[in-house]
């Protein structure tokens, strides 16, 4: 029996497929940029949504009209000085960086600051003033403020100050 012309002569009877002529693909030179535009808009939306919270966190504070100064005579003063590199800030008990700094171990610093605040409060000082140099990181000031809170002295007020480098 003769086979029709649209079947391949080399195939078996079980797997006979028609021979389909391939058309030549024409290169039109056009590029569909619709997916790229979609991705661009998705990225814009992502960045707008993610940066909105960062823009809301920065607030222009008005100048203080009725500020109250803190008296150094009635304050327990802890000075936080900047350090080089990634090392934690140096902490001094008292006003200024004279004398020796507290040890770099945070637990020892916390204990010594809490003891210092308790002893000064026993002498009648009712406020704590934490002075920090301008380049001191916030985490170092927060660590000192937490150490003051560890003193657990009732009625003592905490004040934060920034001491600019001269």
List the helices and strands and how they pair.
Blueprint: H1 34-57, E1 75-81, E2 90-93, H2 106-122, E3 127-133, H3 138-150, E4 157-163
Parallel strand pairs: 1-3, 3-4
Antiparallel strand pairs: 1-2
Helix pairs in contact: 2-3
**CATH secondary-structure class of one domain:** Alpha Beta
Helix content: 25-40%
Any idea what the CATH architecture of one domain is? Answer: 2-Layer Sandwich
Largest sheet entry: 4 strands, mixed
User: Would you tell me the overall average pLDDT?
Assistant: 76
TL;DR of this structure?
This protein is an alpha/beta fold and 166 residues long.
General description of the model:
The chain has a four-stranded mixed sheet with strand order 2-1-3-4, with helices on one face. The chain has a domain at 75-163: Nucleotidyltransferase, domain 5. It is rod-shaped. The longest helix has 24 residues, at 34-57. Residues 54-59 have low confidence and may be disordered. Helices cover 33% and strands 15% of the residues. α2 crosses α3 (138-150). By secondary structure, it is an alpha/beta fold.
